[in-house]
Design brief:
By secondary structure, the chain is mostly helical. The protein contains 38 helices and ten strands. Belongs to the SLC12A transporter family.
Length: about 1100
């Protein structure tokens, strides 16, 4: 089928037309548009809408005179409908695929489904056409099967979508809360704690109205800054369940999130016990007044607390809807109690209340109470430490983020409004109680002023009461002495008691819900593998029932202990640590300058967030220094644990972004500094192919680059470009992951090229970044060079020449068994597949056997349906057993052992360095670095150099002096004076036999034939062999010396001979390398770029 995407199909042929195409609203059937022929109105442009796909459609209309063209186009069948609802130019229904803007194209319009994560609960993820689908030539006879467009549009058949659909079904009917019920109500209830009713009056008495307002304001500054930071983080993407843990972990990474998440969940669980004990203590006080004690105060608290937490657990387990209803009822009671207090302040006081210090609003009382009056042992910070926990609770809404309809909108709006409302209430209560009640009162109605008595400026005295004896003896009433001032002031005292009950129970209920929700999110991320059991959720709301019961157990344990005064400061510090990290998360994300940091909530500043984090840390020490230290120690321990375990998660944290920015800045800064010989380090390109296929080559290179230099494992894909690029792209992540898994500090790079040499040349020129560019090429010795085609030999020798051209050093590594274990890996992979098939088959058989007992027709049909699976079982089993019984030796066990020889610790031995030619010192630096490694530290360096027979001692002393200046330790130095002696006849004969198949023997042929053979088959000519005969002698002689001196060495490091371009043929050079390294331990042939890599200057 030929697809015509030309714009002329839908255009007038008149040259005056300047519009390429026009967009209009057209009818569902093209015939109905005939009436447009008589319409002279100018064309209309439809606004594109992506909101309602069913109603708004974007279609290309034809202009007058083009209907015939359009009809012909439709009748060809190229845009035939696939079903009744398919319009040929519909781009906003599910049939958009291959039909975008009315053209046959694979390109698709922007849709939200493309940007969802796999397994998203808000809808299925759709895979957009890949760049390959769009870029490659479209196959002929493209056809869209009926319904296939819908399948593609809905993302059916893509990995992970089944999971998404299942989750979507589970979420159907789930209870979701708006910002009022889900966030505002919870935060207000949590912030308005029992402190409002029984401690705020004492705080005003101690600090006075002025400092009391400052204490409230300072606390609100901490919570407001945290709320602003939290709002910024919440609006920077979709927020899932987990509250503070989710926000911190997705911003700072699993290390910070995992550590704070665990202690935050634990703090909420213990907070349940704290609030319940507070409620139980109030009930016990009432029982004391009525003389209705059950056992004794401590045991009564335990009994009432246990019953209360069981009831609260029942409400929580019943579902979030019931819990939300209970919270609303408790808020109403709390609001009535607060209103009751304000009403009481304007109700005229009676004699009894005046005796207890309440005189309604009086300017003299306000003036007297405005300044501080700290009692012994109290001060500003101690009073602040007592009040601050009353301002916490701002995370109550965020903690159930998974149960909110729109967390991004609800959390900022609900939290900030809750902070504002509760702050106004705290300030109002503090100012009102400070203006109505004196600090000290006796409670006696008889303590009135005697005529002629001097008041000394006392407000109570001016109002007719004498409370002067409170200066010498303790009194029971007044702001400083009576915690029930609000009950006394209120219009109806029992309502304040109801408010206390409401405050404690609502806070306990919120904590009982928050702890399991946060803990479940933590367990789902599998950061602590031992806690995976608690990740499971139940019901339409995915309720963490297991987490509820764990929280219940923790709360019950602390209720039974009934000694919470010691642990309360630690819990407050746990919450503050969460606030500090939320502020730091906002700062860190802003500082990292990641393009992904785009919060919709713009009222934040990174330096203000940092100030908030520092302020939270300071408040932790103000509240209780030893509790702050304990908090930091626990968090540090958990951070180290998570870092050590390295959870397999990637959340795009700001830590990653900052690491990238730091690396980029350091790389750029490095380019401004010239290289210095003291800082030289081998930075290697290693031609391993896939890193797992030549592990020994990678291991020996990694031994001298780990923690000191750059190592890049390179692979060249040769062949048809399309296939090579596809294979290369698909394996990049997998091979880099293999390096990370095996703790090899190296990068993986690959190129696709027409030939191997071109690929390596590209790598040599383009690899690296700035100063971090490779300076050494490491390759394995080509063991099969005699059987290899000429092109492979030319490529192999050619890349050595290319490296020298680019002034890059070369290291050729040879081991006896060779490096390539790809065949072994293939066999292992096949065995693993067969093993998986066997296990799956056994599981199927087991299932069938378990179903054989099912009776009736249903069981019969099940057996019949499974019959085709059970029949081939014996045959399959036998084939698997046959393969498993194969001897390991068939997989070349020696090759496998050789591939791991550099992973093992090298025993006591030597590294023999044959420094025959000065290449700048690389041949000496590499073995020195090896001796610093744990696996090679027991090996001593032995240095071999060439010299004259009559100057051996002098040259030995000179070399020892040079090595000492280089500060390189060595065990011995050998000066070889007979390197240029001819090799023995047997050795030379072996060399001649080796090169015989590759010699041209042109002297035995006529001139014409010899010239023709030179052009057609480049071989070793007689003239070449004669010209470099002395060099050939040297290579053979060196092998004899190596056999004599270094046969027992752990490793031999030898100067690599250089073949002059145009003078030495490839076959001859390979023969030199072969004879030089034949029958020896592992050999490193090294040749630097002849620039100094060692220096004796400081």
């Amino acid at each position: 089928m030929s697809l015509n995407n030309s714009s002329n199909v839908f255009l007038d042929s008149t040259p005056s037309n300047t519009n390429r195409f026009q967009v209009n609203v057209i009818n569902e059937s093209h015939e109905s548009s005939a009436a447009m022929n008589d319409n002279a109105d100018p064309p209309h442009y439809e606004e594109t809408s992506f909101g309602d796909e069913g109603q708004n459609r974007f279609r290309i209309s034809f202009r007058p005179g083009n209907q015939e063209c359009y009809d012909n186009f439709l009748q060809t069948g190229e845009t035939a409908k696939t079903d009744a609802s398919f319009h040929a130019y519909d781009s906003h229904t599910n049939t958009y695929y291959l039909q975008t803007f009315g053209h046959n194209t694979v390109d698709a319009v922007p849709k939200i489904e493309y940007y969802r994560n796999t397994g998203s609960v808000s809808g299925p993820k759709v895979n957009r056409p890949s760049l390959l689908d769009i870029h490659e030539q479209l196959a002929k006879n493209v056809s869209v099967a009926p319904g296939s467009a819908d399948v593609v549009a809905n993302g059916e058949g893509t990995p992970g979508d089944e999971q998404a659909e299942n989750k979507g079904e589970d979420q159907a009917g789930a209870v979701k809360f708006g910002w009022v019920k889900g966030v505002l109500v919870r935060c207000m209830l949590n912030i308005w704690g029992v402190m409002l009713f029984i401690r705020l009056s004492w705080i005003v008495g101690e600090a006075g109205i002025g400092l009391g307002v400052i204490i409230i304001g300072l606390s609100v500054v901490v919570t407001t800054l945290t709320g602003i930071s939290m709002s910024a983080i919440c609006t920077n993407g979709v927020v899932r369940g987990g509250g503070a843990y989710y926000l911190i972990s997705r911003s700072l990474g699993p290390e910070f999130g995992g550590s704070i998440g665990l202690i935050f969940a634990f703090a909420n669980a213990v907070a349940v016990a704290m609030y319940v004990v507070g409620f139980a203590e109030t009930v016990v006080d009432l029982l004391k007044e009525t003389d209705s004690m059950m056992v004794d105060p401590t045991n009564d608290i335990r009994i009432i607390g246990s019953i209360t937490v069981v009831i609260l657990l029942g409400i929580s387990v019943a579902g979030m809807e019931w819990e939300a209803k209970a919270q609303v009822i408790l808020l109403i009671i709390l609001l009535i109690a607060i209103a009751n207090f304000f009403i009481g302040t304007v109700i005229p006081s009676n004699n009894e209340k005046r005796a207890r210090g309440f005189f309604n609003y009086q300017a003299s009382i306000f003036a007297e109470n405005f300044g501080p009056s700290f009692t012994k042992g109290e001060g500003f910070f101690s009073v602040f430490a007592i009040f601050f926990p009353a301002a916490t609770g701002i995370l109550a809404g965020a903690n159930i983020s998974g149960d909110l309809e729109d967390p991004q909108d609800a959390i900022p709006k609900g939290t900030m409004l809750a902070i504002f409302i509760t702050t106004v209430a705290y300030l109002g209560v503090a100012i009102c109680v400070g203006a109505c009640v004196v600090r000290d009162a006796t409670g006696s109605v008889n303590d009135t002023i005697i005529s002629g008595m001097n008041c000394n400026g006392s407000a109570a005295c001016g109002l007719g009461y004498d409370f002067s004896r409170c200066r010498h003896e303790p009194c029971q009433y007044g702001l400083m002495n009576n915690f029930q001032v609000m009950s006394m002031v209120s219009g109806f005292g029992p309502l304040i008691t109801a408010g206390i009950f409401s405050a404690t129970l609502s806070s306990a209920l919120a904590s009982l819900v928050s702890a399991p929700k946060v803990f479940q999110a933590l367990c789902k991320d599998n950061i602590y593998k031992a806690l995976q059991f608690f990740a499971k959720g139940y019901g339409k709301n995915n309720e963490p029932l297991r987490g509820y019961f764990l929280t219940f157990v923790i709360a019950m344990a602390f209720i039974l202990i009934a000694e919470l005064n010691t642990i309360a400061p630690i819990i407050s510090n746990f919450f503050l640590a969460s606030y500090a990290l939320i502020n730091f998360s906002c700062f860190h994300a802003s500082y990292a300058k990641s393009p992904g940091w785009r919060p919709a909530y713009g009222i934040y500043n990174m330096w203000v967030s940092l100030f908030g984090a520092v302020l939270c840390c300071a408040v932790m020490f103000v509240i209780n220094w030893w509790a702050a230290v304990i908090t930091y120690v626990i968090e540090f321990f958990l951070y180290i644990y998570v870092t050590y375990k390295k959870p397999d998660v990637n959340w795009g944290s700001s830590t990653q972004a900052l690491s990238y920015v730091s690396a980029l800045d350091n790389a750029l800064e490095l380019t401004t500094v010239e290289d210095h010989v003291k800082n030289f380090r081998p930075q290697c390109i290693v031609l391993t192919g896939g890193p797992m296929t030549r592990p020994a080559l990678l291991d020996i290179t990694h031994a001298f680059t780990k923690n000191s230099g750059l190592c890049i494992c390179c692979e060249v894909f040769v062949g048809p470009r399309k296939l090579c690029v596809k294979e290369m792209n698909s394996g990049m992540a997998k091979k880099q992951a293999w390096l990370i898994k095996n703790k090899i500090k190296a990068f993986y790079a690959a190129v696709a090229a027409d030939c191997f040499r071109d690929g390596v040349r590209s790598l040599l020129q383009a690899s690296g970044l700035g100063r971090m560019k490779p300076n050494t090429l490491v390759i394995g010795y080509k063991k099969n060079w005699r059987k290899a085609p000429l092109t492979e030999i030319e490529n192999y020798v050619g890349i050595i020449h290319d490296a020298f051209d680019f002034e890059i050093g070369v290291v050729i590594v040879r081991i006896s068994q060779g490096f390539d274990i790809s065949q072994v890996l293939q066999v292992q992979e096949e065995l693993e597949k067969l093993e998986q098939e066997r296990l799956a088959l056994e599981a199927t058989i087991k299932d069938n056997e378990s179903e054989e007992g099912n009776g009736g027709i249903r069981g019969l049909f099940k057996k019949a349906g499974k019959l085709n699976i059970t029949k081939p079982t014996p045959k399959k089993d036998s084939s698997i057993n046959t393969i498993q019984s194969m001897h390991v030796g068939e997989f070349n066990q020696k090759l496998v052992e050789a591939s791991t020889q550099f992973k093992k610790k090298q025993g006591k031995g030597t590294i023999d360095v044959w420094w025959l030619f000065d290449d700048g010192g690389l041949i000496l630096l590499i073995p020195y670095i090896l001796t610093l490694r744990k696996k090679w530290k027991d090996c001593k360096l032995r240095i071999y150099v060439g010299g004259k027979i009559n100057r051996i001692e002098e040259e030995k002393i000179a070399m020892a002096s040079l090595l000492s200046k280089f500060r390189i330790k060595f065990a011995d130095i050998h000066v070889i004076g007979d390197i240029n002696v001819k090799p023995n006849k047997e050795s030379w004969k072996v060399f001649e036999e080796m090169i015989e198949p590759y010699r041209l023997h042109e002297s035995c042929k006529d001139l014409t034939t010899a010239e023709k053979l030179k052009r057609e088959t480049p071989k070793i000519t007689d003239a070449e062999l004669e010209a470099v005969k002395e060099k050939s002698y040297r290579q053979v002689r060196l092998n004899e010396l190596l056999q004599e001196h270094s046969r027992a060495a752990n490793l031999i490091v030898l100067s690599l001979p250089v073949a002059r371009k145009g003078s030495i043929s490839d076959w001859l050079y390979m023969a030199w390398l072969e004879i030089l390294t034949k029958n020896l331990p592992p050999v490193l042939l090294v040749r630097g770029n002849h620039k100094n890599v060692l220096t004796f200057y400081s």
